[in-house]
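Obj: model holo form, ligand = flavin mononucleotide.
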Amino acid sequence: MTLTTQFTELVGCMVPIQCAGMGTASPLLAVEVAKAGGLGMLSGVMMTAEQLETVFADVQANTTGSIGTNFLIPFLEDESVIDVAAKHSRLVDFFYGDPDTNLVQRVHDGGALVGWQVGTVREAILAEKVGCDIVILQGVEAGGHVRGTRGLLTMMADVLDAVACPIVAAGGIGTPRAVAMALAAGAAAVRIGTRFAATPESGFHPDYIDALIDADGEDTVYTEKFSVGWEAPHRVLSRSVEAAAKLPEGIIGEVEIGGQQIEVPRYSVFSPLDTATGKVNAMAQYAGQGVSAIKSCEPAADILRQLAEGAETILKADAERLNQMLS
Ligand SMILES: Cc1cc2nc3c(=O)[nH]c(=O)nc-3n(C[C@H](O)[C@H](O)[C@H](O)COP(=O)(O)O)c2cc1C
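Output (holo structure tokens):
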């Protein structure tokens, strides 16, 4: 199965689907997505250069597929971790900071392509100007931390007129129809977070995954509630905000990150991994408006295949319809 776009040709994957780097999610998710033909993404958040080297050694022993690395600018302290990422990745992408010429140059010098996830037309133009190879456009529909303030489709229409490099569409995409729509509208690929969070490989807590399965597209909220550790807007399941509001201030549980037990205060930025203890339902349960696509906890490779094959079928039918319309 192949769906060839500028994106697949640049990053060397089979289908134009990028799994979002998701902070503390397991590297196994990146491996499974890469093996199935998408772009699997590791996260460099809270990692030293040595730790990231170790992760890459493990990942590369398990797949020769396309792997990238994501960095969140507010958590980027020691930039030497970028050199490790660039040495081993097809694409290094950044989020939540103004596009930066020095970071772009550093990644290019290390041999990888650079992407920047942006949330406005102005930021998309700047990303291209500083030398990014790919611009990831995030709409306000997205799960996790949200830079976008507008709906994806209207913003994409403006960005496609303003920027020449390939655009990856992000936010609320979870079904084959949504993938097909983004590609038909001009995106070179889609970036998906929430749908891949509900997989056995993501490492997220089963109660969080169950909550994603239960939720509809109307059950998410754009908020700044979970701001302990990082003050920035985000989209979560409404019920996690409601559950947190019912608890008193203080520690509500623990999560294990990089072998360390970390206490989670109420309204902490940390989402629950499967090792989390305490009030998991009141921790940040990030989710985008495409959450209604999640009907069960499925292997990432199965989701990737369904999305790519389904989108291909829809695009072929649409091409016939459009040809008739234009003839
Ligand atoms: C659980 C979760 C964690 C996320 N963590 C990150 C992150 O560490 N870095 C990043 O660039 N984006 C992160 N995002 C946002 C994604 O890059 C992407 O914009 C978003 O997932 C797209 O919307 P969707 O979740 O509706 O597919 C995260 C999203 C989710 C759902």
